[in-house]
Structures are given as structure tokens and as C-alpha cells.
User: Fold this.
Amino acid sequence: MHEYLSTVPFDLYQLHLFHLVARTRSFTEAARMAGLTQSAMTRQIRAMEISLGVDLFERTTRHVALTAPGRLLLEKSGVILDTTGGLVKDLQARFNLSPKVLRIGIARSIGLGYLPGYFFGFQKKHPAVRLLISQGNSNELLEKVETRELDAGLVCPPRSFPRSLQITHRFTDAFTFIAPPSASGTTVARQMSVKELEKQFGTERWLLIRREGNTGALFARWLKQQSCDLQPAMELDSFDMIVSLVSLGLGISVVPHRVLPLYAQRRAVQRIGIKNTFQRELAVVVRKNRVMPEPLRSFVDGVLF
Assistant:
């Protein structure tokens, strides 16, 4: 057995480490993610290279890049990790080996108004399951779902969607205009076009979602289609923060209407409906698997926006 194993060029653990280095282009960052020292990570990759008889990475003091053999290995070996990952998921589902921890990522641009109550309900139903909740931008979370750092993500999906992932639920998220309670000239029951809002509130401080994110990019394109040129006084990556600042009188904004119930009593804002309003899609995303283990299936089936 020992003689046979000595002929195997690498194992699944080393292959996972290789993919981490290839994705991060950094031995230091890959080692941190794997819980290893940099020297231990370097030894693992070097052992692969010696067994294969090729260099997988070009290393300099400033950067790490894949060699031609490294690119081929990355391209062809992804299916191995996908298959073994799917096998583990099937074993967990079919033989009741349910995960005790669910790692969920939520995009910062998704308002948290409805989620605390949902998490509370889920924990009552599954008291033995620990939820690890993290936030980031949608693209970061999709990457972490791909690499199994997260079990599921609640995101605003990009146009180009990873093939290794699937969307289990889609939700339409409509936006509305908000202003501080002290703002003059606003009428809650009235609807206005975004051009009318720009004309009436053009001199106010606009607080908008950052354009670098998926939601921000979609919103910027929508404004361009409406022939609007809103110049933000501040750009943020959280609608919850935007609503809080508007309620304190620091500006005006356009936000998802689902964010607002959390602030209905303590930090009220005035609302004006927008004709032909901006809408985005929200999605629950997981890896493609034949069988989704419990309690992950219960989690994604219960998410409602």
C-alpha cells in the first residue's frame, strides 16, 4: 500500500490547496484561508510539483502566477472537486449526516428588515443547528459559495453567473424614494417620476448605493435610461445605513421598500412612490448538487423577502 501511494502525484487535500493558491494568487492568503502557515502551504504545493515533475506556479517577490501546466491542472481538476463535494453532500443527505453549522452569506445591499424574524423562526425549528452569518458584496459571496466557504448566499446576482452555482429562489425588489421627516414639500400618497424627484430635490444631499456593486451598477444604468444625473453626496454599501442617515436628516435616497419596516417606528422617513420604479432581482444561491442536505434545504425553502 505504501509503495502504491508513493506513485500518486497528489491527494484531494493538496488539490484543494492548489485551487486556493490559484484563486487568490497568493500563498499567504491561501494559507490563511486553509488555516496553515505560509511555509506549510509552500511545502504542500512544492510536493505536488515534485510528484508531477512540473512547476505549477511562477513565483516572484511581487506576484504568483499559474504556469501553462498549472492552468491545465486548474481547468481539468475542477470537476474532481465538484464531484467529491457532491458525493459528500449526497452522503450527508441520504444517511442523515446533516451539517451542524450552516454558513450563510448576505449581500450588504440587502436590507435586514425581514431577516431577523426569519432567523429566529429557523432557529426555533432547528435548535441544534448553528448559523454563521457573514456579509460582503454579492460577487465575493458567490465566490465563497463556489469554494464551499459558504453553504448559501443571499445576493443580487450579476449578469454573468457561475456555472457551478444554481439559484433556488428569485425575488423582485422594488425601490421607493425616502426623505427625512422634516423635509418640506413631500407628500406620502403621491407618486412622482424620477425626473420630477430630481427636479424637486436636485439640490439636496443624495445618499446612494455604491456604483461598484451589482445593485449600484444596475441602478446607475436605470438612472441613465431615465436621463437622470444624480450626484451623490455620499455612497454606501448598505441600505440599512442609508435609511438610518436619511431618518436623521442627513440626506435623501432611493431604497428598497422592504428595508423600511425595520425603521417604521423609531426612525420614520417620508416616502414617495416612483413611477416606473427601479427594480432589482434578489436570489438565494447554492452549489449545484443532486441532493440538498437538511437543514440547508429547509433554510433556502423558507427564505422569503
The mean pLDDT is 84.
